[in-house]
Amino acid sequence: MENTHQNGDARAQLEGFLSHLQNLLRYIDARLQEKGTIAQRYQPLEPLNPKWGILPLVLLTVGLVVLLTAIGTPIIQAWAKADAYAQGQIFYSNIQPLSVAILASPVALALASAIWLVRNRLVLPRLHARTEQINQQRVTHNQAVSADEQRVDAQLTQASRDFASDIGNRFPQAYLYDEAVGFCLQLVRDHRASTIHDAINLYETERYRQRMENLQAWQLAEAQQTRKLMALGTVVNAAMQGAMIGTVRHEGAQTRAALRKPVNVNVRVR
């Protein structure tokens, strides 16, 4: 009677231990998922646009020279042609793009410098002010997110301490996941196991049985698929052979018909 009572107490303690372990694992998993969700709420800060240096000014100048040359050359050429015709001349001077580019260079440099100054002195400060305002709002938002993340980190730290003090090495590390712990807990509740070792062994036996069932199901499905492919191949081959036989018979019939057809022979009489 006393042994039965002791066994019942041991089973109850083991059930309580496994239940506590399962709750801890689920709690830690929930906090980790919550932390991942919180991390997605962070808003990145927008970078400030840098000022243009000498290289952008040079590239802008070259681009404007090319643009002005492409636009100005046909215009100047047409003007020279019209001026020559107005003066009664047949021939007119041919305008070279290089000459137009040389003439357009000062204009292009002036335009590029104006754009460069307007961008650096007027446009960029306004962009920076707008970006800094957005970043300040995001910093405030991220501070609230960081507070939530620190709260979850504190909960995870406390859960880790509880795990170290309450669980320690009493349960195999390889089976520290909800499915295994839940299965062992159910075995203890059903009086099918009285120790962690027995529960783990039964869990491995069940996993092996499931793997074998899955393997058999996969082999059965593969065999059925193979039979379907073989049947399909048989039908296709039969159809192809039937088509070939029909073609041969048709060609043979045409040949026999041609041979039976009378042939007229013309004989010349000298």
Short structural summary:
The protein is mainly alpha-helical. Helix content is 81%, strand content 0%. It folds into 2 domains: 1-177, no CATH class; 195-255.
Question: What does the model show?
Answer:
By secondary structure, this protein is mainly alpha-helical. It folds into 2 domains: 1-177, no CATH class; 195-255. It is built from 5 helices and no strands. Helix 1 packs antiparallel against helix 3 (97-166). The longest helix is centred in the middle third of the chain and has 70 residues, at 97-166. It starts with a helix and ends in a 10-residue tail after the last helix.
Topology (elements, then pairings):
Elements: H1 2-39, H2 54-86, H3 97-166, H4 178-189, H5 196-260
Helix pairs in contact: 1-3, 1-4, 2-3, 4-5
Helix percentage range:
over 70%
How many strand elements? 0
Mean pLDDT: 84
| Rg from alpha-carbon coordinates | 45 Å
Report strand %.
under 5%
> How many structural domains?
2
Shape: flat
Assembly level: single chain
**SS content category:** mainly alpha
Tell me the number of helical segments per DSSP (H or I, 4 or more residues long): 5
Return the string of H and E elements: HHHHH
Distance, first to last CA: 139 Å
Uncertain runs are 265-270
Described by strand count, sense and barrel closure, the largest sheet is: none
Transmembrane segments: 57-80, 100-118
Keywords: Membrane, Transmembrane, Transmembrane helix
Main attributes?
single chain; about 270 residues; mainly alpha; 5 helices
